[in-house]
Design goal:
By secondary structure, this protein is of the alpha+beta class. It has a domain of about 80 residues: RRM (RNA recognition motif) domain (Alpha-Beta Plaits, 2-Layer Sandwich). The protein has three helices and eight strands. It has a four-stranded antiparallel β-sheet with strand order 1-4-8-5. Strands 2-3 form a two-stranded antiparallel ribbon. Strands 6-7 form a two-stranded antiparallel ribbon. The longest helix is centred in the middle third of the chain and has 12 residues. It is globular.
Length: about 120
């Protein structure tokens, strides 16, 4: 008998996050819009090359890639192929003579299968 998946080796410490607590908001920028709308291109040999749609979200800093994948699939009813994450440092900001810092946050770039889309508008 062949087992397809191993059970997780560990559980993330801390509270169990619900899907709406994992995904905080979509990030809609020019670059994120470009990634979400794949354009078919041809390479030097004349073959069609297309990339899969990828969407960018701000997520809970405690969330893992597996939790992000499950939350996106549950909230938007799509099939997630890949999840890439970045921990972004907050930028330094000034207000008059005081120097402060914006909060750190986590960004997730979620790649969907070719037949799925998410409409934000």
């Amino acid at each position: 008998m062949v087992t397809l998946r191993r059970p997780p080796q560990y559980e993330r410490p801390g509270p169990k996050l619900e899907p709406y607590q994992v995904v905080l908001r979509p990030i809609i920028t020019e670059k994120a819009t470009y990634l979400a709308n794949p354009v078919a291109k041809t390479d030097e040999a004349g073959r069609q090359k297309s990339r899969q749609p990828a969407y960018t979200f701000e997520v809970n800093p405690l969330a893992t890639k597996t939790e992000i994948k499950q939350a996106i699939q549950e909230l938007f009813d799509v099939k997630v192929v890949n999840v890439r994450t970045q921990n972004r440092r907050g930028k330094a900001r000034r207000y008059r003579l005081k120097v402060g810092r914006m909060r750190n946050w986590k960004k997730a770039i979620v790649t969907l299968s070719a037949e799925h889309r998410i409409d934000f508008y």
